[in-house]
Amino acid sequence: MILGCIADDFTGATDLANNLVRAGMRCVQTIGVPAAPAGAASRFATVDDAHAVVVALKSRTAPVDEAVRDSLAAARWLRAQGAQQLYFKVCSTFDSTPTGNIGPVAEALLVEVQGRFAIVTPAFPENGRTVFKGHLFVGDALLSDSPMRHHPLTPMTDANLVRVLQAQTTRKVGLVAHEAVAQGPEAVRARFDALRGQGIGIAIVDAISDADLMRIGLALADFELVTAGSGIAMGLPQNGLARGALRAGADVQSLPAVRGRSAVVSGSCSAATNAQVRQFRERGLPALQLDPLQLARGDHVVSQSLAWCSRQPGDGPLLVYATAEPAAVQRVQAELGTAHAGELVERALARIAVALVERGVRRLVVAGGETSGAVVQALRISQLAIGAQIDPGVPWTAARSPIAHGEWLHLALKSGNFGSADFFTKAFGDGAGA
Questions:
Q1: Which pTM was predicted?
Q2: Are 132 and 178 spatial neighbours (Cβ–Cβ below 8 Å)?
Q3: Candidates 1.20.58.1370, 1.10.3720.10, 3.30.450.40, 3.40.50.10840; CATH matching 3-243
């Protein structure tokens, strides 16, 4: 294992694994910290033969102490398996609160590896996330002007990442500005050295292009810890190629074939996912919306939803969603409370996903980080092999679930903010058929 990765949510884990596979690393994602390095016996990737292992946690919005504890447990397991470098994967929109969890976890991991200095960059230009002068942009807008300012759990109202991270850590936070990055790896390393000399413990690093990520990646060859979005994963594998630990052109993304129905379950309420739901419905494909208020009243929403699913003809994809526009989400949260509303939706969608797989669904798209975590855990999946990309940040994965009666299941775990408007149909091919 070259790279041991800790992701703070499930869709972020597959986002990271996707970029590692694209860059030539055979990659496996585990659900939580494994008890031992084991995987399904097949010709597809397992922990034992992976270049990179991504441990997916649900720590992004967990209490700080819990997030630190789980992240350290993952780090210790990965290092025990021989990981040469640790990668703490955070959201490309830096989802966090004034108390964490990015700063506290990064600081704890730096202590764990006995490091003095680490970098942080959520940049992923291919997906419209860039960092310039320490400020995070989503497309052409500052993070604080983007739809992330309305996020129900982690509203991001400040685009200055140096300031955001400084509020979360006791270490002094500095900046590697784009002027240094544009000059190449040696200039970046020189800037690292200068910041260390100033007593800086963590540095935000600018990146506005894929070329920047490649330069930064080369400068990180000897780092014990990298904290970043998934973008920098494009730049790290070149260090393995240079050492001869990776082979250029190797097939690292094959997945087993599956046969069966296709479905989407969506709990994300992001702007991107709302657009995807609208496009799916506009194509006249079967879609059913869940009402959290009916769930709270104890109505038989899940059983009614499954009955609706059973009535849909053919093998083409169907969609069950709780996705809604910000005003509707706010009304529900005002009545039920933010945490309770989220839990109701996650549990309901997880139950529906399990029942769909029991009934023969073998290709399943799940939209939303928290929803993805709930669904994967309900399906009792412990490990995912990573396959080809559907859209930037979202690959198909393959897993065995006892719910699927021993058959392979294809899953796409989509971050709420990711994917083109036609993602839900694109995922299943032209015509959105099976």
A1: 0.81
A2: yes
A3: 3.40.50.10840
- Residue 79 CA to residue 21 CA, distance in Å, equals 21
What pLDDT shows up at residue 11?
A: 85
- Of 275, 262, 204, whose CA–CA distance to 409 is shortest? 262
User: 155, 98 in Cβ contact below 8 A?
Assistant: no
The whole-angstrom distance between residue 431's C-alpha and the CA centroid of its chain comes to 27
- How far apart CA 186 and CA 192 sit, in angstroms, is 10
pLDDT in tens, 367-378: 998 899 899 999
The answer, yes or no, to whether residue 430 has pLDDT greater than 70, is: no
Distance CA 185, CA 84 (A): 20
| SS3 of residue 119 by DSSP | strand
Please say if the pLDDT value at position 391 is more than 50. yes
CATH number for the 261-432 domain, one of 3.40.47.10, 3.40.30.10, 3.40.980.20, 1.10.630.10?
3.40.980.20
Is 50 exceeded by the pLDDT of residue 158? yes
